[in-house]
C-alpha cells in the first residue's frame, strides 16, 4: 500500500513537469496571435502529420482594446475578464480547436495572464474584445467580478522601481498593470475557475505569464485548485502541464528555482547565450557548446522550457537583448533552432511569428507594438501557399523545411544520449544522439571537411536540412555512413544552410 501511495505522490508531483504530449512528440510551437479556426486547421493539415506535440496559443480571455497605438499585440496581456472572447475567436471556436487538435494528437497550452488585469492607463468604458465594461481607476471589473478588494493597492500602488526587492516585484504594478491580490481565496478561486473551464474543455496545460510577479506560494495555491486533465484525451489523474514565465538572467533577487515546485520555468539564458555564440560575439565559439546545458549555468534540464526567441524578445521586449536570433536573421536562426532541437537539454518550443514593418530609430524598433496581420482589426486568415509556406504576412517558421525536419529529428532521437561530440576548436562542431541521429555545423569562415564518428549504423542517409526523404529517395545531400560508423562531411561556409543532420528515419 505504501508503495502505491508513494507512486501516486511521485505521479502527482511529477506531472506538472510533463507536457502530456503524445508519445514520440517532443516539441511545441507558439502560434502567436493565430485565430482558433486557423490553429484547428493547422493541427489537422500539418502539426499532427509532422509530429508536433502541441501549440501554445495567445491569451484566450477578453482583453482591453487599445486604439493608440492601433490594436497592438500587447493588448492581449491586459485582461478585462475571463470570458473566452478575443480577436482569435469565441468559446465555441476555442472548443472546436481543442477537440480537433487533441483528436490528431496535438495538445493545446494556454497563455494564462493571471497576475494582473489591464493598465491604469486605460479610460473606463467598454473598449474590450467582448464589450465588457471596466473601470481601471476604481478597480471595477464587473464581468469577472473584481473590485478594489481584489487588488494589491493596500500593499503597493506604484510601479516596480527595484527588481532586487522581491516584495516590489510581486506586489507592485508591472508596467502599470493592476496587480491582483493572489493571497485572497476569492481571487485564487476565480482564477482557478477560469483555468478549470479550459482544462475541462481539453487543454493540456498553461504558460503562466509574468510568474516572477506572483508569489510561488500563491501560484501553488491556485494550481492545487485545478482539475485533472480531461480523461477524453488524457489518462486518469493527469495534472496540467505548467511552465512559468520567469526571466532570470542571474542578476536579480528573484531566481527561477523558487518556482520549480510549481512546474517548469522558461530558461531565458538559453536564447540569450546561444544567440551570442551563433553570432560569434564576445569571442564566443561553437566549440564551447560541448558542455551546453547545466554546464552553462542553466537550470536542470527537467525544469527547463527552452526556446531561441519568444514573442517578447523577438521585438526587443522582455529579456535577451540584441543577441536574440529571430526569423529576421534567417540563416543563423535556422542553425540556432537546429542546435536546440538536436540537443537533449530542456523541453523545446518553436516560435511562429508574423512580419511587421520594423522601423529602427536610435537602435530601437519604434514599431515593436504592431499587432498581427489584420483587416481593420480583424486578424487575417493564415493562408497556405503552393510551396507550403504561409501567406498574409504570417512567417510560419515551423513550416520552414529545416525547422520542421528538426522537430522530427528530435522525435526520432528521443531519450537517446548526447554522444560523439567533435569540434575543430573554433565554430565547426558535431554531435550525435546515441545511434539514432547526428548533426554537423560549420559556422567558420572556411569550409569544413572531416571524417566523423556518427554512431549510426552503416547506410546512406538523407540530409534533412538540405532536403527531404520522399518515397525512398533524397531531394538533398546524401551521407554515406561506413560499417565503422564514420562518414565524410564537407560543408562550405557559403552554403545556404551550413549544417547537415541525419537520423534513423532519414536512412534510404
Ligand atoms: C506604460 C508605462 C508604465 C506606466 C503605464 C501606465 O511604461 O510605466 O505605468 O504605461 O499605463 C504596454 C506598453 C507599456 C505600458 C503598458 C500599460 O508597452 O508601455 O506601460 O502597456 O499601459 C506585454 C508587453 C508590454 C505591454 C504589456 C501590457 O511586453 O510592453 O505594456 O504587454 O500590454 C518583464 C516581466 C515579464 C514580461 C516582460 C515584458 O518580468 O513577465 O517584462 N513578460 C510578460 C509577457 C509580455 C507582457 C507581460 C508580461 C505583461 O511575455 O508580453 O507584456 O502581461 O520582464
Ligand atoms: Ca503581482
Automatic annotation (TrEMBL):
<keyword id="KW-0119">Carbohydrate metabolism</keyword>
<dbReference type="Pfam" id="PF02806">
    <property type="entry name" value="Alpha-amylase_C"/>
</dbReference>
<keyword id="KW-1015">Disulfide bond</keyword>
<keyword id="KW-0873">Pyrrolidone carboxylic acid</keyword>
<keyword id="KW-0732">Signal</keyword>
<feature type="domain" description="Alpha-amylase C-terminal">
    <location>
        <begin position="419"/>
        <end position="507"/>
    </location>
</feature>
<protein>
    <recommendedName>
        <fullName>Alpha-amylase</fullName>
        <ecNumber>3.2.1.1</ecNumber>
    </recommendedName>
</protein>
<comment type="similarity">
    <text>Belongs to the glycosyl hydrolase 13 family.</text>
</comment>
<dbReference type="GO" id="GO:0004556">
    <property type="term" value="F:alpha-amylase activity"/>
</dbReference>
<dbReference type="GO" id="GO:0005975">
    <property type="term" value="P:carbohydrate metabolic process"/>
</dbReference>
<dbReference type="InterPro" id="IPR017853">
    <property type="entry name" value="GH"/>
</dbReference>
<dbReference type="Pfam" id="PF00128">
    <property type="entry name" value="Alpha-amylase"/>
</dbReference>
<dbReference type="InterPro" id="IPR031319">
    <property type="entry name" value="A-amylase_C"/>
</dbReference>
<keyword id="KW-0106">Calcium</keyword>
<feature type="signal peptide">
    <location>
        <begin position="1"/>
        <end position="15"/>
    </location>
</feature>
<dbReference type="InterPro" id="IPR006046">
    <property type="entry name" value="Alpha_amylase"/>
</dbReference>
<dbReference type="InterPro" id="IPR006048">
    <property type="entry name" value="A-amylase/branching_C"/>
</dbReference>
<keyword id="KW-0868">Chloride</keyword>
<keyword id="KW-0479">Metal-binding</keyword>
<dbReference type="GO" id="GO:0046872">
    <property type="term" value="F:metal ion binding"/>
</dbReference>
<dbReference type="InterPro" id="IPR006047">
    <property type="entry name" value="GH13_cat_dom"/>
</dbReference>
<feature type="domain" description="Glycosyl hydrolase family 13 catalytic">
    <location>
        <begin position="26"/>
        <end position="410"/>
    </location>
</feature>
<dbReference type="InterPro" id="IPR013780">
    <property type="entry name" value="Glyco_hydro_b"/>
</dbReference>
<keyword id="KW-0326">Glycosidase</keyword>
<keyword id="KW-0378">Hydrolase</keyword>
Amino acid at each position: 500500500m505504501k508503495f502505491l501511495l508513494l507512486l501516486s505522490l511521485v505521479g502527482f508531483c511529477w506531472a506538472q513537469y510533463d507536457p502530456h504530449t503524445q508519445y514520440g512528440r517532443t516539441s511545441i510551437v507558439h502560434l502567436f496571435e493565430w485565430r482558433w479556426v486557423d490553429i484547428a486547421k493547422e493541427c489537422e493539415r500539418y502539426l499532427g502529420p509532422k509530429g508536433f506535440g502541441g501549440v501554445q496559443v495567445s491569451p484566450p480571455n477578453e482583453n482591453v482594446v487599445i486604439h493608440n497605438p492601433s490594436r497592438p499585440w500587447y493588448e492581449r496581456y491586459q485582461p478585462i475578464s475571463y470570458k473566452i472572447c478575443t480577436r482569435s475567436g469565441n468559446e465555441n471556436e476555442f472548443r472546436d480547436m481543442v477537440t480537433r487538435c487533441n483528436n490528431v494528437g496535438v495538445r493545446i497550452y494556454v497563455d494564462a495572464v493571471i497576475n494582473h488585469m489591464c493598465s491604469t492607463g486605460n479610460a473606463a468604458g467598454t473598449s474590450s474584445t467582448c464589450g465588457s465594461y471596466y473601470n481601471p481607476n476604481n478597480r471595477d471589473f464587473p464581468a469577472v467580478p473584481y473590485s478594489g478588494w481584489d487588488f494589491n493597492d493596500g500593499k503597493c500602488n506604484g510601479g516596480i522601481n527595484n527588481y532586487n526587492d522581491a516584495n516590489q516585484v510581486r506586489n507592485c504594478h508591472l508596467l502599470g498593470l493592476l496587480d491582483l491580490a493572489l493571497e485572497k481565496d476569492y481571487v485564487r478561486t476565480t482564477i482557478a475557475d477560469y483555468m478549470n473551464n479550459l482544462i475541462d474543455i481539453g487543454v493540456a496545460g498553461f504558460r503562466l505569464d509574468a510568474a516572477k510577479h506572483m508569489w510561488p506560494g500563491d501560484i501553488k495555491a491556485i494550481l492545487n485548485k485545478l482539475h485533472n486533465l480531461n480523461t477524453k484525451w488524457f489518462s486518469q489523474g493527469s495534472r496540467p502541464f505548467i511552465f512559468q514565465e520567469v526571466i532570470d538572467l542571474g542578476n536579480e533577487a528573484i531566481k527561477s528555482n523558487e518556482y520549480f515546485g510549481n512546474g517548469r520555468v522558461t530558461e531565458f539564458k538559453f536564447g540569450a547565450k546561444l544567440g551570442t555564440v551563433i553570432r560569434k560575439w564576445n569571442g564566443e565559439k561553437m566549440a564551447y557548446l560541448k558542455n551546453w546545458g547545466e554546464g552553462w549555468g542553466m537550470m536542470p534540464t527537467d525544469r527547463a522550457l527552452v526556446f531561441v526567441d519568444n514573442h517578447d524578445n523577438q521585438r526587443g521586449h522582455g529579456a535577451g537583448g540584441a543577441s536574440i536570433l529571430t526569423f529576421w536573421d534567417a540563416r543563423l536562426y535556422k542553425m540556432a533552432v537546429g542546435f536546440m532541437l538536436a540537443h537533449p537539454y530542456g523541453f523545446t518550443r518553436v516560435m511562429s511569428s508574423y512580419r511587421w514593418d520594423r522601423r529602427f530609430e536610435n537602435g530601437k524598433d519604434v514599431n515593436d507594438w504592431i499587432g498581427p496581420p489584420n483587416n481593420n482589426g480583424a486578424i487575417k486568415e493564415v493562408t497556405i501557399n503552393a510551396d507550403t509556406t504561409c501567406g498574409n504576412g504570417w512567417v510560419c517558421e515551423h513550416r520552414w523545411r529545416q525547422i520542421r525536419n528538426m522537430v522530427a529529428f528530435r522525435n526520432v532521437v528521443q531519450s537517446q544520449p548526447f554522444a560523439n561530440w567533435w569540434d575543430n576548436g573554433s565554430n565547426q562542431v558535431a554531435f550525435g544522439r546515441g545511434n539514432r541521429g547526428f548533426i554537423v555545423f560549420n559556422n567558420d569562415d572556411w569550409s569544413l571537411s572531416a571524417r566523423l564518428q556518427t554512431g549510426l549504423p552503416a547506410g546512406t542517409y538523407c540530409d534533412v536540412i538540405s532536403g527531404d526523404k520522399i518515397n525512398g529517395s533524397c531531394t538533398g545531400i546524401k551521407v554515406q555512413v561506413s560499417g565503422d560508423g564514420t562518414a565524410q562531411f564537407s560543408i562550405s561556409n557559403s552554403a545556404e544552410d551550413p549544417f547537415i543532420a541525419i537520423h534513423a528515419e532519414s536512412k534510404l
